[in-house]
Amino acid sequence: MGETIYNLAFDFGASSGRMILSKYADGKIELEELHRFSNDPVRIGKNFYWDTFRLYHELKQGLKKAAARKLPIKSLAIDTWGVDYALLDKDGNIIGNPINYRDDRTIGVIDEVGKIVPLKEIYASTGIQFMNFNTIFQLYADKKMRPDIYEKADRLLFMPELFGYLLTGKKYNEYTMASTGELLNAKTRDWDFDLIKRAGLRTDIFGELVQPATIIGDLLPEVTEETGLSGVKVIAVGSHDTASAVAGTPLFDKDAVFLSCGTWSLMGMELDEPILTDESFKYNYTNEGGVEGKIRYLKNINGLWIMQNLRKNWCEFEGEVSFPDIIRASREAARKDFVIDPNDPRFTAPYNMMKEVIGYCEEHGQGTPEGLGEIAMAIYNGLTQEYGKVVRELEHLTGKNVPCINMVGGGIQDKLLCELTAKNTGKKVVAGPIEGSVLGNITMQLKALGAIKDREEGRKIISNSFPQEIHMPEA
Fold first, then answer.
1. Model pTM greater than 0.90?
2. Does the record carry RNA-binding as a key word (predicted)?
3. Which residue of 193, 220, 254, 263 is 20 to 30 Å from 319, comparing CA positions?
4. Phi, psi at residue 76, to the nearest 5°?
């Protein structure tokens, strides 16, 4: 029997976060959730902020719970959503609370930046899908709308790096996270300072990039004193949660498509090199950084955020309802042909998602969805038909024949979503594991500690540790 290794993975999603304890022994991983908490952005005036200090408080609450277990925990790592950041002054203080990517200050900024640097040239370097909340556009908006904060900034830290800094005192930027911001050269895998200068932005706030599976440092003495946890290394993993999710996906085939289903749906393929063609630009695909130098060639699709907000609004206006209730109502719906475009801007951050889904269907000549099931079916159909469209585009852009779709993330607990994904893509769906991001996070920690060799060994361990369920398309 080999050594038993304990690690902690903090996985921050856009709506909730959790801390997971991992036990690795005899070639298998076991997971235990020690701490879970909501992630509730806050509107202050015209802006939409992350409740950053409460999230850090919750992180430390998790560390206290881990310390109480009195286990020889070797390391921890943090992954979060992409693009968002904190700005620090020369004394290391946070200046200006991090703004949520759904804030509307960046509306129209893509066109403004495109007049300075042609968008086709930006894509030819970065290979990143144009979305108004990408870091390059947020920084441009900060320069205009928060000039005092922008000018006083000494360093930019993305969200997982911010939490890592608060734990260790070490400032760093991690490659996979930085790649989400449309600030890196996709070929060199480093900051594109020429592009940053051309966009009129500062180059001195960015640090040297570290790769996943890099040991950052130890917990600060004050963190150890407060939490009771000691002897733990903080490791940079694929700190963008999708980078960790892909690393934690036991891909069925080298040409398989991954689909990480959570607040967002991230769908794509793992490639050796970026695709920066005019067609890729036209289809607006992204070339984000993956672990071990891979490229995550994918499309961002508005995901279960829509369903989460439908449930929230239904509970507010119609009465308490659970996700199993929504699934059951959808299966029993009289009409199952309603469909929305999940990428329509109206579904980004509305006050009433239920009203927006109904309005979309009416405005597009589909009639009025009645009841919870018909409204939910419009969302299910919209998401899974979009998955089918993306699969066809991926086959065209890569020249590969996709044999199956590997689904990971919390969305795979929804069997109806998995079934409709198989039906509307025409592909076999292999669902599992649920904890894709956590497992990718853990396996990169194990690599950093020398316990495993690489991501492929990690994927084999994951496949042997957790079940997968197959859903076949209809004949």
1. yes
2. no
3. 263
4. -145, 160
